[in-house]
C-alpha cells in the first residue's frame, strides 16, 4: 500500500510524471487512465502498472483519483496530451458511463481524437459487472437507465479490447455484442475483442501448466515502486512555489482536484482536444533492458 501512496504523490512531481514517457518498451507501451483508489482498480490498473514493467513493456499512468461513490462511473477531469497518445500502444480506460465513442454535445468523440493523433493506438475499456441485469434494489440501478446503457454499449463496441473479470460476463458480452452488431450497429462490423482477466485466482489451477519453481520465484521488477518512493519524498520536502505546475481546480462534477504536471503540447480533456499535434507514430527512445531488482 505504501508504494501506491508514494505513486499518488509522485504523480505531482513534474520530473517523475514526464519521465514515464521518455522511454519505451521494445514490444509495447501501456497507458492507464485515472484509476480510483478502490480494490478493483488496484488489481486492474495500479498493480499492472508496477508489475508489467520489463524490457519489453513500459507503463505509465495519468493520475490516481480519490474514490467517490457518486461519480464512480463518470469520467474524471482527465488530460491526455498528444505526447502521451503518440507514446502509447494501449490506452486503458476504467468502467465509465460517459460517452467516449460517439459525438457528444457537438464535440468529436474521445476515441476519434485519440485515433486521429495515433491511428495505431489500441483502446482498452473495462467492464466491471453486468449492467444489464441490476435489480431494482441495487444501488446502481438508477444510474444505468436506457441512455446510460446505450453509452456503455458504444464505449464497448467501438473499443479495440473490452476486458471483464469473470468468464460468465465474458460469455454474456460476446453474445450481446453479436446481437448488437445485427441490430443497433447493423452495417458496422465490430473490430473489438473481449477478454477475461479474473481478479481472484485459484493458484493450483493457475500454476497447473506453468513452469514455476516455488524455491526460485520470479522477482518482479520494482523499479517503478522505487522511483515513485523517491519522487514522493521530493514532493514532501519541496515547498510549494508560485510557479508550481500543480493547480487545484474544480472538475466537471464540482469536486476539487489537483491536476497533474503537464507534458508539452495540447491536451485531450473531457473529450475535448486542445492541440492534436502531429499524427502518426512517434519516434521512440528505446530504454535500456531493465535488470531484475531484488
How would you describe the overall organization of this protein?
This protein has nine helices and eleven strands. The chain is globular. Strands 2-1-4-5-6-7 form a six-stranded parallel β-sheet, with helices on both faces. Strands 3-10-11 form a three-stranded antiparallel β-sheet. The model is unreliable at 242-264 and 270-294 (pLDDT under 50). With 294 residues, the protein is an alpha/beta fold. α1 (2-10) crosses α9. The chain has helices at residues 2-10, 14-19, 39-51, 82-87, 110-117, 146-157, 167-182, 203-206, 223-237; strands spanning 28-32, 57-61, 79-80, 90-93, 122-126, 161-164, 193-196, 248-250, 256-258, 268-269, 272-273. α7 links the parallel β6 and β7. The protein has one domain (2-273). Helices cover 30% and strands 13% of the residues.
Which features would summarize this protein structure in a list?
alpha/beta, six-stranded parallel β-sheet, disordered C terminus, single chain, 294 residues, three-stranded antiparallel β-sheet
Amino acid at each position: 500500500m505504501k508504494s501506491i501512496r508514494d505513486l499518488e504523490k509522485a504523480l505531482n512531481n513534474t520530473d517523475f510524471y514526464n519521465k514515464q514517457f521518455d522511454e519505451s518498451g521494445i514490444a509495447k507501451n501501456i497507458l492507464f487512465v485515472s484509476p480510483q483508489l478502490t480494490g478493483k482498480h488496484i488489481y486492474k490498473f495500479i498493480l499492472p502498472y508496477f508489475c508489467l514493467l520489463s524490457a519489453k513493456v513500459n507503463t505509465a499512468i495519468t493520475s490516481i483519483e480519490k474514490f467517490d461513490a457518486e461519480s464512480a462511473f463518470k469520467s474524471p477531469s482527465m488530460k491526455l496530451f498528444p505526447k502521451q497518445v503518440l507514446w502509447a500502444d494501449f490506452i486503458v480506460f476504467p468502467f465509465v458511463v460517459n460517452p467516449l465513442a460517439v459525438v457528444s454535445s457537438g464535440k468529436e468523440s474521445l476515441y476519434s481524437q485519440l485515433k486521429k493523433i495515433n491511428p495505431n493506438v489500441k483502446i482498452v475499456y473495462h467492464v466491471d459487472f453486468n449492467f444489464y441485469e441490476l435489480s431494482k434494489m441495487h444501488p446502481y440501478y438508477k444510474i444505468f437507465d436506457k441512455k446510460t446503457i446505450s453509452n456503455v454499449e458504444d464505449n464497448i463496441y467501438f473499443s479495440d479490447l473490452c476486458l471483464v473479470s469473470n468468464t460468465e460476463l465474458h460469455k454474456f458480452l460476446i453474445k450481446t455484442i453479436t446481437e448488437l452488431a445485427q441490430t443497433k450497429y447493423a452495417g458496422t462490423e465490430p473490430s473489438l475483442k473481449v477478454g477475461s482477466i479474473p481478479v481472484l485466482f485459484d493458484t493450483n489451477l493457475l500454476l497447473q501448466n506453468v513452469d514455476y519453481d516455488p524455491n526460485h520465484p520470479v522477482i518482479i521488477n520494482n523499479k517503478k515502486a522505487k522511483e515513485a518512493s523517491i519522487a514522493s519524498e521530493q514532493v514532501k520536502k519541496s515547498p510549494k512555489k508560485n510557479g508550481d505546475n500543480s493547480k487545484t481546480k474544480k472538475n466537471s462534477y464540482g469536486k476539487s482536484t489537483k491536476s497533474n504536471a503537464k507534458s508539452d503540447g495540447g491536451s485531450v480533456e473531457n473529450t475535448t482536444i486542445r492541440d492534436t499535434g502531429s499524427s502518426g507514430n512517434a519516434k521512440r527512445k528505446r530504454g535500456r533492458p531493465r535488470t531484475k531488482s531484488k
